[in-house]
């Protein structure tokens, strides 16, 4: 009788430990720093640098790639603008731009639909770009 009780105890214990490990791993997967959704993997973006700082686009491209976006193109213009904004190029409902805006925490979204372009979203960097990219040295110019 004691052997049967021990066996039942070990089965229950194994099951409980298995459940604990399963839920811990599931929780860790959700909190992964480099995790990204399937939608982000398929959003092709371009970065247009109008910040007046030549390396601004490199910092933004690195950040976007870490977040899972496909950065297809970088353009540097001699034009300077104040505010950073996001341009939807593909979806009239701005779904792609909304995903990028959420990651960058940038509320400025415009729409310029052109489905012949490869990119779905353009990110136009203004002088304020640093507030949208974490871990950028705020003192550099």
From the alpha-carbon coordinates, what is the Rg to the nearest angstrom?
A: 23 Å
Beta-sheet strand percentage? 15-25%
Assembly state (oligomeric): single chain
CATH class of the largest domain: Alpha Beta
Question: How would a textbook summarize the main sheet?
Answer: 5 strands, mixed
Report the total helices: 4
CATH-assigned fold name of the largest domain? Alpha-Beta Plaits
Helix content: 25-40%
Order of helices and strands: HHEHEEHEE
Write out the strand line-up for the largest beta sheet, numbering strands in chain order.
Answer: 2-1-5-3-4
What does the model show?
With 141 residues, the protein is an alpha/beta fold. It has 2 domains: 1-32; 38-132, 2-Layer Sandwich (Alpha-Beta Plaits), CATH 3.30.70. It has 4 helices and 5 strands, in the order H-H-E-H-E-E-H-E-E. The chain has a 5-stranded mixed beta sheet, with helices on one face. The chain is elongated, with a radius of gyration of 23 Å. 26% of the residues are buried. The model is unreliable at 30-36 and 137-141 (pLDDT under 50).
Properties at a glance:
141 residues, alpha/beta, Alpha-Beta Plaits, 2 domains, 5 strands, elongated
Task: Briefly say what this structure is.
This protein is α/β, with parallel strands linked by helices and 141 residues long.
Can you lay out the helices and strands and say which pair or pack?
Layout: H1 2-30, H2 38-41, E1 44-49, H3 56-66, E2 70-76, E3 85-88, H4 95-104, E4 109-111, E5 121-125
Parallel strand pairs: 1-2, 1-5, 3-4
Antiparallel strand pairs: 3-5
């Amino acid at each position: 009788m004691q052997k049967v009780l021990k066996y039942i105890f070990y089965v229950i214990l194994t099951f409980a430990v298995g459940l604990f490990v399963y839920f811990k791993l599931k929780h860790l997967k959700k909190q992964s720093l480099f995790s990204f959704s399937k939608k982000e993997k398929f959003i092709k973006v371009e970065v247009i640098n109008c910040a007046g700082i030549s390396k601004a686009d490199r910092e933004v491209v690195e950040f976007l790639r870490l977040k899972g976006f496909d950065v297809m193109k970088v353009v540097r213009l001699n034009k300077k603008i104040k505010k950073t904004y996001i341009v939807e190029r593909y979806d009239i409902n701005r779904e792609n731009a909304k995903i990028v805006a959420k990651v960058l925490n940038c509320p400025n979204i415009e729409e310029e639909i052109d489905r012949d372009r490869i990119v779905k979203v353009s990110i136009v960097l203004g002088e304020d770009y640093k507030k949208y990219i974490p871990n950028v040295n705020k003192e550099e110019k």
